[in-house]
Write a structure and sequence with these properties.
Elements: E1 3-6, E2 16-22, E3 29-30, E4 35-40, E5 45-49, E6 54-59, E7 66-68, E8 72-77, E9 101-103, E10 106-108, E11 113-115, E12 120-122, H1 134-143, H2 161-171, E13 179-183, E14 188-191, H3 196-211, E15 214-222, H4 224-241, H5 248-261, E16 267-270, E17 275-278, E18 284-290, E19 293-295, E20 298-299, H6 307-323, E21 336-339, E22 359-363, E23 367-373, E24 376-390, H7 396-411, H8 414-418
Parallel strand pairs: 18-21, 21-22
Antiparallel strand pairs: 1-8, 2-4, 2-7, 3-6, 4-5, 6-8, 9-10, 11-12, 13-14, 15-24, 16-17, 18-19, 18-20, 22-24, 23-24
Helix pairs in contact: 1-2, 5-6, 5-7
């Protein structure tokens, strides 16, 4: 009997994927667990292994197509079997009335209209009571979702956030197919579909801007001593561990120490219970630019790792992210994020919070600048820092204390190693 292999639920909120490449073709004999396709989700590129051995009877999607969780990817059977076509839905008889109304979230029951000689007014059958918390109702309002039109999957039929997000996704228009060129009143243009990592990045950035109260603060750090320390240590790192020591492991060490002094920067807000969740662990995310967006690999328990171990893990995670081979578990669990746009020549910025975290630190390009020390002007190595934090969780005073502590550790890196 033929087996329909459906696109599985990969977790982490993944609801769809793009067929990047088929690794088999119709008619091929395959073994159990043999990779049959490369599928790009909004998190990473993953290989889909066949659940059974047999012959590929039908590939249900072309390369480049988007497949939803639960849709059939491929049908696998024995030699001589064929794919049985699904029965056509019978046409609706004319006596069943007109088609039901359709809204942005799906089909709605047709109104029952009562007509009298004195008035003509629509009267809709009363909908059932909507069970949802204030936080879910706020989210629905922000996303333009009608709660009365969706079914709750929580306890007792209560609506939860995933119900709202699912309804919003269902209402989205399909991506515009790529065209070579199109002419408008100003000239030619290209249309490129918003998909993959770029689509996820767009959604995450919009979610953050809608669900946080972001405030920025900028400082300059004299990292002349840090520069010298890194120059000394990078030779040892290459000789002993074959790893390139960048500034990021040193910055992470300084950030973790500053977070320990200022707990609200390492927290998040539970909107349903209206509680601040102060994290007692330090999982530091690192924003990595990939070909079509951003990914944020997470260094778990960064406070418990040696400097060169951090350097090796960062190097490995960045390589996996750019090759799109990173494990989904390496992209979750962050408590604070660092984005290093200085590696691309940037100086200051206003980075967007990696929601639901409380804050994000932007690191700029280190430059030689005039600096006053002990009443004298000297040329020093200066690192621009930009902090964005959620004003719902902490105020400017707490952010300033964090930045002060961070400057202290960056400008005197011996403190980082002394308490490591």
């Amino acid at each position: 009997m033929a087996t329909d292999f459906k696109f599985p639920d990969l977790g982490e909120g993944v609801t769809e994927g793009e067929i990047r490449k088929w690794l088999v073709k119709e008619g091929d004999d395959i073994r159990s667990d043999q990779p049959i396709a490369e599928v790009e989700t909004d998190k990473a590129v993953v290989e889909m292994p066949s659940p059974v051995a047999g012959k590929v009877l039908k590939l249900h999607f072309k390369e480049g197509a988007t497949v939803k969780v639960g849709e059939v990817l491929v049908t696998i059977g024995a030699a001589g079997e064929s794919v049985v076509a699904a029965p056509q839905r019978p046409p609706v008889p004319a006596t069943e009335g007109r088609r039901e109304s359709v809204s942005v979230v799906g089909e709605l029951p047709t109104e029952e209209v009562l007509v009298s000689s004195t008035a003509v007014a629509p009267s809709t059958v009363q909908a059932q009571e909507v069970l949802a918390t204030p936080a879910v109702r706020r989210l629905a309002k922000e996303m333009g979702v009608d709660l009365s039109a969706i079914k709750g999957t929580g306890p007792g039929g209560r609506l939860i956030e995933e119900d709202v997000k699912g309804a919003s996704r269902a209402a989205e228009k399909p991506p515009v197919p790529k065209k070579v060129a199109k002419f408008d009143i100003y000239g030619y243009l290209d249309r490129e579909p918003l998909r993959g990592i770029r689509k996820t990045t767009a959604k995450k950035m919009l979610e953050s801007s809608q669900r946080t109260a972001p405030v920025q603060m900028m400082e300059d750090a004299d990292v002349t001593e840090l520069w010298g320390m890194r120059e000394r240590l990078k030779v040892t790192a290459m000789e002993t561990r074959k790893v390139k020591l960048t500034f990021m492991p040193l910055i992470i060490k300084a950030v973790v120490m500053a977070l320990k002094d200022n707990k609200y920067l390492n927290s998040s807000l539970d909107e349903e219970t209206e509680e601040i969740l102060v994290k007692k662990y330090y999982n530091i995310g690192i924003a990595v630019a990939v070909d079509d967006g951003l990914m944020v690999p997470v260094i778990k328990l960064a406070d418990q790792k040696e400097l060169l171990d951090l350097a090796m893990e960062i190097e490995e995670l960045i390589a996996k992210a750019r090759e799109r081979k990173i494990d989904l578990s390496d992209l979750k669990g962050g408590t604070f994020t660092i984005t290093n746009y200085g590696s691309m020549g940037g100086t200051y910025g206003t980075p967007i919070i990696n929601y639901p975290e409380a804050a994000i630190l932007g690191v700029g390009r280190i430059r030689d600048m005039p600096w006053v020390r002990d009443g004298k002007v000297e040329v020093r190595k200066v690192m621009p820092l930009s902090l964005t934090w959620d004003h719902r969780i902490l105020d400017g005073g707490a952010a300033a204390k964090f930045m002060g502590a961070l400057l202290r550790y960056l400008e005197d890196p011996e403190l980082v190693l002394a308490f490591h």
